[in-house]
Amino acid sequence: MKDFEAAIVQAGFDVTDFSARQLLHLPGTKEVIPDIATVVVRRISTNIAIKYQCGMPSEWWKHFEADMKADKFGQPLI
């Protein structure tokens, strides 16, 4: 979680931001994604796109990506 928060802060976002906190959890669960070694954060207009690398099982990423495309977090991502 510290790696995630450090990446968010480094990118200029507040770690208390809803989208940052929401993305710490698997869609539809309370489980925190473990072993986040690298987080790539980029700003698209006013939205945040975050892709996890290293330590996020591919099946989790598929669900996560599908939810993002469906705009379940309230912020449409490209």
Give the neighbour order of strands across the main sheet.
1-2
- β-strand percent reads 15-25%
Uncertain runs: 25-55
Structural class: alpha+beta
* Overall number of structural domains: 1
End-to-end CA span: 24 Å
Shape: globular
Share of residues in helices: 25-40%
What's the total number of strands?
2
Radius of gyration: 11 Å
Count every helix, treating DSSP H or I runs of 4 or more residues as helices.
3
Layout of SSEs?
Layout: H1 2-10, H2 18-22, E1 38-44, E2 47-53, H3 58-69
Antiparallel strand pairs: 1-2
Keywords:
78 residues; alpha+beta; two-stranded antiparallel ribbon; 3 helices; 33% helix; 18% strand
Quick take:
Helix content is 33%, strand content 18%. The protein has 78 residues and is an alpha+beta fold. It is globular and about 30 Å long.
